[in-house]
């Protein structure tokens, strides 16, 4: 298998979660290394505060990292930090901008590469930054504030934007908001983002929508709901979502505390995986011809509190960042979708993992 880059974001400082728990981050910052044949070799560290989610720009060799804080350098809110990387794997911090929203927790680039969308969890807002032709953040931004609340007295006392997902055609942006049980809809036109309230998707009370992905043909959308521990399947066409069905991520006999965290499809679109925190497991479903999900497997995440996981671009491996046990668990994805654990790597407070091919870079890190 070809060498791939791996980038890991960690919690470096204490952070108060929406659950009321104060997590004591032990991480060192942004980690960059090589992933090859199921092995991780970490080679570089860039010190930055709580880089809890990452976005990779392979064309311009940029890494954008949110700084998940409620106060950043004396100002209320968090930030986004831009790094460049070169063929030697060297990391250089280039710029840093306030998001004007608290606890930014997710970041995504538009398909045309003209803007970055950042979900600010604690304040329930969306920050949209302009990118220039070189992939640099210009500093120009718009802030869209969500409003409302949900039925859960602690988790849904206000809006909590949790992710930003661009549609496959690049025309729409969807922002699942855990606090108001709603997927907020935005239109994308030439790098400009505008809300379209009439296209918002309202979820059942207490669902807590967190993150979603589109099927490879763009006809289906899958949403993981943090509070209800469900994956919801939608038919999708030109900005319209029709809810079809939901599956529970937990075994029928489970009675403990659980909140879901992440969801990803395999590159070939055959399987989808979701993660449980509390039950500490990864669940696999086969994606049927009509987009519906069939249960395949539920397996231990290989540690405690799997916050984020990723599937490598070849579809051969799934890597899970177990936040509370300081481990990245490495699973082999078998042809039938079953996961087989093949190793672990000690990483302090891992919260985001991205694996990407280095393109035309051939030198060693």
UniProtKB/TrEMBL annotation:
Protein name: Lactonase family protein
UniProt-recorded Gene Ontology molecular function terms: 6-phosphogluconolactonase activity
InterPro entries: Cycloisomerase_2, Haem_d1_sf, Lactonase_7-beta_prop, WD40/YVTN_repeat-like_dom_sf
Organism: Enterocloster bolteae (strain ATCC BAA-613 / DSM 15670 / CCUG 46953 / JCM 12243 / WAL 16351) (Clostridium bolteae)
Family: Belongs to the cycloisomerase 2 family.
């Amino acid at each position: 298998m070809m060498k791939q880059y791996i980038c890991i974001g960690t919690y470096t400082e204490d952070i108060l979660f929406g659950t009321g728990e104060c997590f004591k981050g032990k991480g060192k910052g942004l980690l960059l290394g090589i992933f090859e044949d199921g092995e991780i070799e970490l080679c570089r560290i860039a010190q930055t505060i709580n880089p809890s989610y990452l976005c990779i720009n392979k064309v311009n060799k940029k890494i954008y990292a949110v700084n998940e804080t409620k106060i950043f350098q004396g100002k209320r809110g968090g930030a986004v930090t831009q790094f460049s990387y070169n063929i030697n794997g060297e990391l250089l911090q280039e710029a840093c901008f306030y998001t004007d929203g608290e606890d930014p927790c997710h970041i995504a680039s538009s398909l045309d590469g003209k803007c970055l969308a950042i979900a600010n969890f604690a304040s329930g807002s969306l920050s949209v930054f302009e990118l220039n032709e070189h992939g640099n953040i210009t500093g120009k931004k718009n802030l869209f504030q969500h409003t409302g609340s949900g039925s859960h007295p602690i988790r849904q006392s206000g809006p909590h934007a949790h992710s930003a997902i661009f549609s496959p055609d690049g025309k729409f942006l969807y922002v699942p908001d855990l606090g108001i049980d709603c997927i907020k809809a935005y239109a994308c036109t030439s790098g400009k983002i505008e809300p379209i309230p009439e296209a918002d998707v309202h979820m059942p009370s207490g669902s807590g929508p967190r993150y979603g992905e589109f099927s490879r043909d763009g006809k289906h959308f899958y949403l993981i709901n943090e509070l209800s521990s469900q994956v919801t399947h939608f038919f999708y066409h030109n900005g319209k979502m029709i809810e079809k069905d939901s599956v529970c991520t937990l075994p029928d006999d489970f009675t403990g505390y659980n909140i879901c965290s992440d969801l990803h499809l395999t590159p070939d679109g055959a399987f989808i995986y979701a993660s449980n925190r509390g039950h500490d497991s990864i669940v696999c479903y086969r994606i049927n011809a009509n987009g519906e999900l069939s249960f395949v497997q539920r397996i231990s995440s290989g540690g405690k509190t799997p916050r984020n996981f990723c599937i490598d671009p070849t579809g051969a491996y799934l890597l899970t960042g177990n936040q509370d046990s300081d481990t990245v668990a490495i699973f082999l994805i078998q042809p039938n979708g079953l996961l087989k654990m093949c190793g672990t790597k000690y990483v302090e407070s891992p919260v985001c993992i991205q694996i990407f091919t280095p393109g035309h870079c051939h030198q060693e890190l």
